Amino acid sequence: MKVFVTGGIGYIGSHTVVELQQNGFEVVIADNLCNSNIKVLDGIEQITGVRPEFEKIDLADAEKVQDFFSRHRDVVAVIHFAALKAVGESVQKPLEYYKNNLNSLMNVITAMREFGVKNLVFSSSCTVYGQADILPVTEQTPRKQAESPYGNTKAMCEDIMRDVAKVEKEMNLLALRYFNPIGAHPSSCIGELPNGVPNNLIPYLTQTVAGIREQLSVFGDDYNTPDGSAIRDYIDVVDLARAHVVAIRRLLDGKNKANYEYFNIGTGTGLSVLELIHAFERATGEKVNYKIVGRRAGDIEKVWADTTLANRELGWKASVPIEETLANVWKWQKHLMNK
Ligand code: NAD
Ligand code: WQD
User: Fold this and answer.
1) Is 7 within 8 Å of 81 (Cβ atoms)?
2) Residues noted as catalytic
3) Is the dihedral of CA 50, 51, 53, 59 positive or negative?
4) Interior CA angle at 14 toward 337 and 6, to 5°?
5) Span 117-146, mean pLDDT?
6) Which residues contact 203 (CB under 8 A, 6 or more apart)?
7) CA pair distance 276, 211, nearest whole angstrom
8) What separation in Å is there between the alpha carbon of 212 and the centre of ligand 1?
9) 102 lines ligand 1 (CB under 6 A)
10) Is the pLDDT of residue 255 over 90?
11) Which of the residues 215, 288, 290, 326 has the least number of beta carbons within 10 Å of its own beta carbon?
12) How far apart are CA 216 and CA 129, in angstroms?
């Protein structure tokens, strides 16, 4: 069975392609490479022994998407990763973010409807919860007004899926709300490839330990948390990739309870920035050079997932211990430097 993976050359997409192939699925990828490198295909092939089909396509171009579906009539499901994802950049370039992220999703769903492809899994984000009043967040936790255009595209894409599902009864749409994805494939054949100076904690941390950055800034130690630094739910990228495989199976097996569903995908455990740094030091034996600085604008204090629904309905649970995840990202960083 063939799955169409949009944005499959990217960080989470590439790990998901590996898991799909290892679980017996055929994969075809479309990506415009705006935030990824075609060499990732080599990494995927090294792990699985199979080079996935690939087409360079901009999914924001409706005609190209129609044409793609017209030529791939054996696709039974789609996983839609393709999106721009830099929170800060989205504040500077809101139109680019709305155009890219909303049009891509609408083009994909429109073509699916036209060509009779019924099943879609979409990459959403815990960003839709903002700073929740009660933790951990369940799927019933009310969404809050997004802090950034990027976050707003995720909320709007969810709304599009919900509204389409009401009238397109044959379609099965499912959103996964990722918490903070981190890590790399244990083979070190694929991992995160941040462009320029990283904004996210883990790539900044590993680049600091590697000597590429001078010092890691810890944004705030005056939050209302046990050690004062902010808390997140860090989910291993391979665990996250596996969640997509079970989500696709759920749709293909007709096990979904509604034709629009959404699930939290996290570990269920919150870790503070300082706890994460110390876990990294334990896992790798490396020392992290960091200093405490002021809070970063727009950051929330704490968030972590209640994953009961995904555990029960998808039969999925995060399983990679945080030390293993951190050892893998360090191995990946060293691999990048030796290339
Ligand atoms: P990524 O940038 O590594 O991957 C996205 C891929 O989509 C890239 O290869 C990019 O080239 C491609 N792409 C973007 N716009 C495209 C378009 N118009 N046409 C074709 N290809 C296009 O990002 P990622 O971290 O792998 O994220 C994947 C998805 O998960 C995104 O939708 C992102 O918003 C979502 N998400 C990511 C995180 C995270 O922290 N990484 C958290 C929550 C949700
Ligand atoms: C994690 C923690 C920082 C860098 C972002 C998006 C979110 C989602 C995941 C897509 C925070 C702290 C960070 C640094 C630090 N993406 N930090 N020093 O902000 O939780 O979430 O990625 O949907 O929408 O906003 O992730 O990795 O940037 O930060 O102290 O140099 O690390 O303040 O507490 P974030 P992050």
Assistant:
1) yes
2) 150
3) positive
4) 135
5) 98
6) 192, 194
7) 19
8) 24
9) no
10) yes
11) 215
12) 27
Per-residue CA distances from 74 to 25, 42, 241 (Å): 12, 24, 22
d(CA 144, CA 132): 8
* pLDDT at residue 212 tops 90: yes
**What separation in Å is there between the alpha carbon of 305 and the centre of ligand 2?**
15
Distance CA 232, CA 127 (A): 11
Q: What is the pLDDT of residue 175?
A: 99
Decide: pTM greater than 0.85: yes
**Best of 232, 271, 300, 329 to mutate for ligand 2, by most ligand atoms within 8 A of CB?**
232
Which residues, in sequence order, are bridge partners of residue 264? 177
CA distance 57 to 157: 20
Interatomic CA distance for residues 255 and 247, integer angstroms: 10
Residue 304 near residue 137 (C-beta atoms within 8 A) = yes
3 state DSSP class of 63: helix
Q: Is the previous residue joined to 142 through a cis bond, with omega within 30 degrees of 0?
A: no
Structure tokens at 302: 């704490």
- For 178, phi then psi, to 5°, come to -75, 145
Distance 110 CA to ligand 2 centre (A): 33
